[in-house]
Amino acid sequence: MDIDVRGPRFGAAVTSVVLAVTLITGSVWLLAWQTLAFALGTAGGVTRSPYGWVFRKAVRPRLGPPTEFEPPEPPRFAQAVGLAFAAVGLIGWIVGPAWLGSAATACALGAAFLNAAFGYCLGCEMYLVVRRVTVRAK
Predict the structure, then answer these.
(1) pLDDT-derived band at 17, boundaries 50, 70, 90
(2) What are 55-110's pLDDT values in tens digits?
(3) Which of 28, 60, 65, 105 is the most buried (most CB within 10 A)?
């Protein structure tokens, strides 16, 4: 079942704020929260992530009906990519080196911001490339 395109974009906006505050404050706890949010979005899909839940319960009822839909697989893959970067960020900040934590978090922030501000989902585009390559390889 296809999903409302505004949901993942809302999630990307919240993610951008969380990751920006994480970089500004150096809060490992905020990055741990975001890592958990990515993990839930990867496991259950973006509609079952914490930000997807907020969108569904608090934001979407205030908007008009959706006019654009997308398949759930690309945003779910994007959540997995975000999870990988957030996990590397956590490792960098907890175990070291700290620059690795900052760099991985900044990469995740950059991707989330692209989606939030411009509607360009870098992880979704990666999903499409992976699909094309794996289909050709068969």
Answers:
(1) very high
(2) 999 999 999 999 999 999 999 999 999 999 999 999 999 999 999 999 999 999 99
(3) 105
Contacts 24+ apart (CB under 8 A), 54-58: 54/10, 54/14, 55/6, 55/7, 55/10, 55/11, 56/7
Instruction: With beta carbons less than 8 A apart as the criterion, state whether 58 and 2 touch.
Output: no
Q: What is the pTM of this model?
A: 0.94
Q: Which residues share a beta bridge with 3?
A: 70
Q: Residue 95: which residues within 8 A CB-CB, separation 6 or more? A: none
Token representation of residue 43? 């496991």
| The total number of residues written for the chain in this structure | 138
Q: How far is it, in rounded angstroms, from Cα 81 to Cα 111?
A: 10
Q: What is the separation, in whole angstroms, between the first and last Cα of the chain?
A: 26
- Phi, psi for residue 45 in degrees, rounded to 5: 90, 160
Tokens of 67: 């006019």
